[in-house]
Design brief:
The complex is a heterotrimer of chains A (about 400), B (about 725) and C (about 150).
Chain A lengths: L1 E2 L27 H13 L2 H4 L13 E4 L3 E4 L16 H10 L1 E2 L3 E2 L6 H4 L4 H11 L13 E2 L8 H9 L13 H11 L5 H4 L17 E3 L2 E3 L15 H10 L1 E2 L3 E2 L3 H8 L6 H12 L21 H16 L25 H9 L1 E5 L2 E5 L8 H16 L7 H11 L1
Parallel strand pairs in A: 1-2
Antiparallel strand pairs in A: 2-3, 3-6, 4-5, 7-8, 9-10, 11-12
Helix pairs in contact in A: 1-5, 3-5, 7-11, 12-14, 13-15, 14-15
Chain B lengths: L10 H8 L33 E4 L2 E3 L10 E5 L8 H13 L7 E4 L21 H28 L6 E4 L2 E4 L4 E4 H8 L28 H5 L15 E7 L6 E2 L4 H6 L3 E7 L2 E6 L2 H11 L3 E2 L8 H10 L7 E5 L3 H7 L2 E9 L11 E7 L2 E6 L4 H12 L6 E5 L13 H10 L6 E4 L2 H6 L7 E9 L5 E10 L2 H5 L27 E7 L13 H20 L4 H8 L4 H14 L9 E10 L2 E10 L7 E10 L6 H21 L4 E2 L2 E2 L18 E5 L12 H18 L9 H5 L2
Parallel strand pairs in B: 3-4, 8-18, 16-17, 20-21, 24-27
Antiparallel strand pairs in B: 1-2, 2-3, 5-6, 6-7, 8-11, 9-12, 10-11, 13-21, 14-19, 15-16, 15-18, 19-20, 22-23, 23-24, 25-26
Chain C lengths: L1 E5 L2 E5 L7 H8 L18 E4 L2 E4 L13 E2 L1 H4 L3 H12 L9 H14 L5 H8 L9 H14 L2
Antiparallel strand pairs in C: 1-2, 3-4, 3-5
The chains are: A alpha+beta (about 400), B alpha+beta (about 725), C alpha+beta (about 150).
């Protein structure tokens, strides 16, 4: 089970079975179309959400716990006719992706970011369909969604869409460079970055203004992407951003973990160099925003034992991170300079210890094991505090309760 | 792959080794380092038939190799770290009059000659090795020496009283002439073994009782290929396996094509409950296994979780018809007339063995025979299983015992050999199957969980009048060696520390409720019944002492007054630990005393609980009387290591199941005590001439109770459930 | 084809670049002194030296070696410090089952190279990533001190 916030960049929660519409698939024999579709599918990061851990690609079944709402399971988007989308027409697919309405007038729960995907043109979405028609069909039906009332009435989503509903593909801004326009399309469209990186409005939709000031979802902090020198990306060089988007790691900035590691693994690392530069160009243009003060005042005074944290770190962590925070085997394990080591709340530090992380690279998967069930709340709080103080020069504002809360989110 | 250094495999070496593996260990001289190793079978001592083999443990042949004594000792128990090779050689060499580093070593093959009577098969376990070897091996050495002397006297035409022996030679005292044993082998072989075999008295010993270096230190320090996992034979392929993570389940679907597309993968093999991917190397096999994306038919055990296992054990507390395993005639009456009664319930978890060497087996099954290279504590059973699977007569299966990278009871099981045979018979080439750590941990056979209830009947002054013990849990012996289960269904191992104890119970009763754990197979684990029982008994005695307002050492001393050896170790441990002297605030001491495996231990542990939810183990003091010490330094090593093994387990370890699957699958979740958590352990060995007792498991048994008692002393909190740390955190 | 330099010898191998160095050593080159323990860098049994630093071979994709030289337990005996540490290990009989010891020794040598006279705390910090299931930690610590005494 993976927790995820409502409307975060996630799975297409359709029930695909029993559709009567005739399939009218895009011509999957057009290699140019399929290749373009694969690239677009990667930009849209379809695979990460539509694949269960250890399961076949695109066969769905990955669980998303939506607090207060229930558990959704990503749908099977392989060409299997019974369990996947093999029986869908192209137009049905386009409508599902861009408008959140799947065949039979089933409104998709907006864990599927169709409001962002609507920035893609119908042709682009049809290319994705052409690619998906070439993946291996898997006859595996994801579990039924377990959704609480009133969300169990899919029509509720119609109302939601009135407030937060789909945008449309918008024209280029002629006052901006082609790179900027392409970057905007990448970030606001298939990349759906705001889903995690922008704070949410009262109805849990992403704020239309897309501040990119950072937000916490399911314990993971998606960092401030604005150009703020201190809180955002203002201090990152183009080379660092480029390295991070390509490999998940940038010297002096640490390594992507958790949900961001997935985005790198399945999506961003496949970007062409020009798209990567376009994305950077657009990100550079985001208005500087201060991150919300993240400190949770309700938490008790930190009660952590740095000596115990040091001892545990030497045993459980130094195998990869040395005691200095430098990667022992690989640069991916170099954590010095990571944003997570400057966060007094220790969001991602705690979450990555609890859940682990996996980053796909050209040299195979780089894994951080999870330690949650092996160590107590106090142990992990001690390790996190020690890490923050010694490697991040940051005073912790959390105690073992933060670990307990994080643990509950990841169970 | 192109190797700059060609290392042509010697077929001759391979074939020779296949008929009798020679174990390295003594011989640091053979190997060249820094280069790809040759296909390794172990250094070979030559192929000469040994003319002189007076018994199953000694073989002497004329030597063809300069520097080789021609003397080979065959070691009946396997080496898995406990130092038994060194101990066994010491015993033989003492009487044979050779230097331990003069001899070649061989692991005994599966053979009736090596069956220990009380184990029922050829087995290394239960701290029985030295006990078994003590007389057997000294007699073997002495008998051989007598025959060699007689052969020399025959050559010289002198009375045997003119001959002496030392360092592998017979000396003619009057003339000073000498003959090496190897050169007497042919003549000695014609003689009949002596009937009367006098053994040296202790004052004449030159080896026994002195600390000696381990014979396998150099080979291990240099990383020589010793272990089963290091085996390489010609044409061998590498493989790894996945069995259904839910016990009793079977393979559902696999994506065979995806696995076969993985670079380096050769084959995908299936049996009912497991899959095996064969490749050029382990990593390719592992990636192929991942690509298989196996689905399982999990079966009925998919609903098992740990809470159900504990619930069923606790239900046994109210079982009206237990097996009454031991009872004094007055037990019931004594309990009835007690002035007061005190009772407590203890709970212990499932435990994995997790030795550092993951489970592995190299095996080659051919139409006419099979070879198996494996570390096993039960070589005959392992061999017989392969013969059975391969449909071969037992004598066509050669099993080559390897050094074991940690056993702790894991290799008393041989199901991994059976599994390997099931896969290997599907391919013509030799297969080395290595389990991932995840497979090793989650598909282990586990030390059972137990619930114990103890009740004491006390007189008006708080002294014990009667004790009642109820043990609830599996009977491991019923599966492992069914003949070992008593006719009324009791596993005698469960009496350890309860009826096998230094204490004298005025009256007592031990009853047993058998509850087999669903969803797991249970097995022996370091310290067996002693580790299990001692936590219960020594915790309970401590509770009684504190309840009576007595000092825990003094209270025990009174209870073991009829056991002088136990009193000596208790008093020595108390003295050396500074028992009774003031401690810093937040510190506390705990004690345990035991008689297990024929050895007595007194243990005192000091803890620091200044941080209430944390335990820092400050110091451990152990006094031991294990009878005549064979190698004092190795006694210390076993207690040091066994103690740390037990302390880590007591603090951290519990195997849990969810939906029938074991959750702890690697060292990130299955926590092992590390160097910066390991306390100093002072060990004091009591001089003794009693028959040696076992030592390898004693420290492990002592750890949990002494630690729990120390925690109670430091914090006032009595923890009756293992592991201990979660209990402290839940405060 | 990848070229890897191990114990002063170059080898070429056609394994995929994600293959951990451990399996190139053990299964491809037959250098089995480096042990497989966990596969996730939690136990240290696979410790070797890369550029003289102690690394876990199980978690180092061979494609990331980038030509840096590797030393394994089989090659460390030709180094005076390596030999001193191995001698110290033998002198007080550190080993029990011995399986983890090549990794322990490689970690210890790397420690002593950086810090010729480590304190107990230094040793604990450097060595606690190496698990020994037999519990030989006390002797490992002592052997490191003894080896430090041999270094002049």
């Amino acid at each position: 089970m993976r927790p995820f916030p409502l409307f975060a960049a996630m799975a297409c929660m359709t029930l695909a079975a029993g559709q009567s519409a005739r399939a009218a698939a895009a011509d999957p024999t057009d290699p140019g179309l399929v290749t373009r579709g694969q690239y677009l599918a990667r930009l849209a990061d379809c695979e990460a959400c539509h694949t269960a851990p250890g399961g076949p690609s695109f066969a769905g079944g990955r669980a998303f716990a939506l607090p207060g709402m229930g558990t959704l399971y990503a749908s099977n988007i392989t060409p299997d006719a019974q369990n996947g989308i093999g029986a869908w027409s192209d137009e049905q697919f386009v409508r599902a992706v861009r408008e959140g309405v799947s065949p039979g007038w089933k409104h998709l729960y907006p864990a599927m970011p169709y409001q962002d995907y609507a920035r893609m043109t119908p042709d682009e979405v049809r290319a994705i369909r052409a690619y998906l028609a070439t993946v291996k069909p898997v006859a595996r039906r994801p579990p039924e969604n377990k959704v609480r009332f009133p969300f169990s009435i899919r029509a509720v989503m119609i109302g939601w869409n009135l407030f937060n509903g789909p945008a449309s593909s918008y024209p280029d801004d002629p006052a901006r460079s082609a790179a900027w326009n392409r970057g905007r399309w990448l970030v606001e469209g298939p990349g759906h970055c705001a889903e995690c990186h922008s704070p949410r409005n009262l109805t849990m939709g992403v704020s239309q203004s897309h501040t990119y000031a950072g937000a916490v979802t399911a314990g993971w902090m998606a960092y401030n992407l604005s150009s703020d020198l201190h809180d955002g990306l203002g201090s990152w060089s183009d080379d660092a951003l480029s390295a991070y988007l390509t490999t998940g790691h940038a010297d002096g900035h640490g390594t992507a973990a958790g949900p961001m590691a997935e985005v790198i693994s399945y999506s961003l690392r496949f970007m062409t160099p020009s798209d990567r530069m376009a994305m950077i160009t657009y990100l550079r243009s985001l208005t500087p925003q201060s991150s919300a003060p993240s400190r949770d005042a309700s938490r008790e005074q930190a009660s952590v034992t740095l000596a115990q944290g040091a001892a545990l770190f030497a045993g459980a962590c130094a195998g990869c991170h040395l005691t200095t925070g430098a990667g022992r085997q690989v640069d991916f394990a170099t954590i010095t300079g990571a944003h997570s080591l400057k966060d007094p709340d220790g969001h991602n530090l705690i979450q990555v210890m609890l859940e682990g992380s996996r980053l796909e690279t050209d040299q195979g998967a780089i894994n951080m094991p999870r330690f949650g069930a092996g160590y107590s709340d106090q142990d992990l709080a001690d390790i996190a505090a020690y890490t923050l103080v010694t490697l991040g020069k940051t005073q912790p504002a959390f105690n073992e309760n933060a670990v307990r809360d994080g643990r509950q989110r990841s169970e | 792959m192109r190797l700059p250094v060609t290392a042509p495999t010697s077929r001759r070496h391979f074939l020779t080794a296949a008929t009798g593996l020679v174990v390295a260990g003594l011989l640091p001289r053979h190997r060249a380092f820094g280069r790809p190793s040759e296909f390794y079978q172990g250094p070979l001592v030559g192929e000469t038939k040994s003319p002189f083999a007076p018994n199953a443990y000694i073989r002497i042949a004329p030597s063809r190799v300069a520097g080789d004594s021609g003397i080979t000792l065959i070691l009946p128990n396997v080496e898995m770290g406990q130092g038994i090779y060194t101990g066994a050689v010491t015993l033989i060499a003492e009487e044979l009059e050779v230097e331990p580093d003069q001899v070649n070593l061989e692991a005994a093959p599966p053979d009736d000659a090596y069956v220990a009577a009380d184990m029922g098969t050829q087995a290394t376990g239960g701290s029985t090795s030295t006990i078994f070897e003590w007389t057997t091996l000294r007699q073997a050495g002495a008998a051989a020496r007598l025959m060699l002397v007689q052969a020399a006297a025959g050559q010289w035409g002198c009375p045997v009283s003119d001959c002496t022996t030392r360092q592998g030679q017979v000396f003619h005292t009057p003339s000073g002439r000498s003959i090496a044993y190897a050169d007497l082998a042919a003549d000695a072989a014609k003689l009949s073994p002596p009937k009367d075999i006098p053994l040296k008295t202790a004052k004449d010993w030159t080896l026994i009782g002195r600390s000696r270096h381990r014979l396998d230190s150099r080979a291990k320090v240099e990383g020589q290929p010793l272990f089963g996992i290091d085996i390489r034979v010609p044409d061998m392929k590498h493989a790894t396996v996945a069995a259904c993570p839910v016990m009793g389940g079977t393979v559902g679907g696999i994506d065979r094509d995806a696995a076969l597309r993985t670079p380096g993968v050769h084959a995908v093999l299936m049996i009912d409950n497991a899959v095996c991917v064969v490749a050029d190397h382990y990593w390719a096999a592992k990636k192929g296994l991942d690509a298989l994306a196996v689905t399982w038919n999990e079966g009925t055990n998919a609903s098992v979780d740990t809470q159900r296992i504990y619930r069923e054990l606790h239900d046994g507390l109210s079982e009206p018809k237990p097996v009454v395993a031991k009872s004094t005639s007055d037990a019931t009456a004594a309990m009835a007339r007690a002035a007061t009664r005190y009772e407590a319930t203890y709970q212990q978890p499932l435990l994995a063995h997790s030795p550092m060497e993951p489970v592995n087996c190299a095996i080659h099954i051919r139409p006419d025979g099979a070879d198996v290279w494996v570390g096993t504590q039960v070589p005959m059973w392992a061999r017989d299983s392969v013969a059975d699977i391969a449909g071969l007569p037992k004598n066509r299966v050669q099993l080559h015992c390897q050094y074991i990278g940690g056993g702790f009871g894991r290799r008393l099981e041989y199901e991994y050999v059976t599994q390997a045979a099931q896969f290997a018979k599907q391919v013509p080439y030799p297969l080395k199957i290595v389990w991932s750590r995840e497979e090793d941990l989650t598909l282990d056979r586990f030390r059972p969980a137990y619930v114990d209830h103890v009740r004491a009947g006390l007189d008006a002054r708080g002294r014990i009048e009667s004790m009642e013990f109820r043990v609830i849990g599996p009977a491991v012996v019923a599966r492992w060696e069914p003949a070992g289960l008593s006719p009324d269904g009791f596993d005698e191992d469960l009496a350890a520390a309860i009826s096998i104890t230094p204490y004298t119970w005025p009256a007592s009763r031990l009853d047993y409720v058998r509850r087999e754990a669903p969803g797991v197979v249970t097995a022996w684990w370091r310290g067996v019944g002693g580790t299990r029982g001692l936590f219960v008994v020594e915790s309970f005695i401590d509770e009684l002492a504190l309840r009576a307002g007595a000092d825990p050492v003094a209270y025990r001393r009174e209870l073991i007054r009829e056991q002088p050896r136990a009193r000596v170790v208790l008093d020595l441990a108390a003295e050396k630990s500074g028992w009774g002297t003031p401690l810093p605030k937040g510190h506390g001491r705990g004690v345990a005393v035991q008689f297990l495996f024929g050895s007595y231990l007194g243990t005192v542990i000091e803890v620091d609980m200044t941080e209430p939810a944390q335990v820092r183990i400050v110091h451990v003091t152990v006094a031991v009387d294990c009878g005549q010490p064979v190698n004092p330094d190795q006694i210390r090593a076993q207690i040091e290591g066994g103690m740390i093994f037990g302390l880590g387990t007591a603090l951290f370890n519990e195997i849990t199941l969810s939906n029938g699957r074991v959750q702890e699958d690697n060292f990130n979740l299955w926590r092992i005590m590390r160097m910066n958590e390991a306390p100093p352990v002072d060990i004091h060995i009591v001089a003794s001439t009693e028959t040696p007792g076992g030592i390898g498991e004693t420290g492990t048994a002592a750890a949990a109770p002494a630690l729990a008692n120390a925690i109670a002393a430091a914090s006032g909190r009595r923890l009756r459930t293992l592991p201990l740390l979660p209990g402290l955190e839940s405060a | 084809m990848l070229t890897v330099r191990i114990n002063d010898t170059d080898y070429q191998t056609d394994v995929t670049p994600d293959t951990p160095l451990l399996w190139v050593l053990r299964d491809v080159l037959g250098l089995t002194g480096t042990k497989f323990g966990c596969g996730i860098a939690e136990c240290g049994a696979c410790t070797v030296h890369v550029d003289g630093k102690a690394v876990r071979a199980c978690s180092l994709p061979v494609g990331l070696l980038n030509g840096r030289p590797v030393t394994t337990i089989e090659g460390i005996g030709s180094d005076p410090l390596g030999q001193a540490v191995q001698m110290a290990w033998m002198e007080i009989d550190v080993v029990q089952c011995g399986y983890c010891q090549p990794g322990q020794i490689m970690s210890a040598i790397a420690l002593l190279r950086d810090n010729p006279h480590p304190t107990d705390a230094d040793i604990d910090a450097a060595m606690s990533g190496n698990i020994c299931r037999c519990g030989t930690y006390l002797r490992i610590r002592q052997a490191i001190h003894n080896a430090a005494g041999l270094i002049t």
